[in-house]
Amino acid sequence: MNILFATSEVYPLIKTGGLADVAASLPQALLKLGLNVKIVLPAYSSVLSQAEKVELKILSSITVLGREILLQQTRLPGTRVKVILVNIKEFSEREGNPYCGPDGNDWPDNHWRFYWFSLAVEAIAMNQAKLKWPVDIVHCNDWQTGLIPALLSEHASAPATVFTIHNLAYRGLFSHQIFSELNLPVSFWHHEKLEFYGQLSFMKGGLNFAQKITTVSPSYAEEIQTPEFGNGLDGLMRVRKTDLHGIINGIDMNEWNPNTDKCLTHKFSRKNIGGKLKGKLALQNQLGLEEKADTPLIGFIGRLVDQKGVDLILAQITLLLSKDCQLVFLGSGFPHYELALTNIAAQYPRKISVTIGYDEILAHRIEAASDMFLMPSLFEPCGLNQLYSLRYATLPIVHAVGGLKDTVFECTTSEPDELANGFVFHKPTTIELHHAICRALDAYKLPNVWKHLQQNAMNRDSSWEKSAQEYKAIYEDLAPDCLDKTT
Question: Which positions ≥6 away from 353 have C-beta within 8 Å?
Answer without folding.
Answer: 287, 288, 289, 326, 327, 328, 329, 345
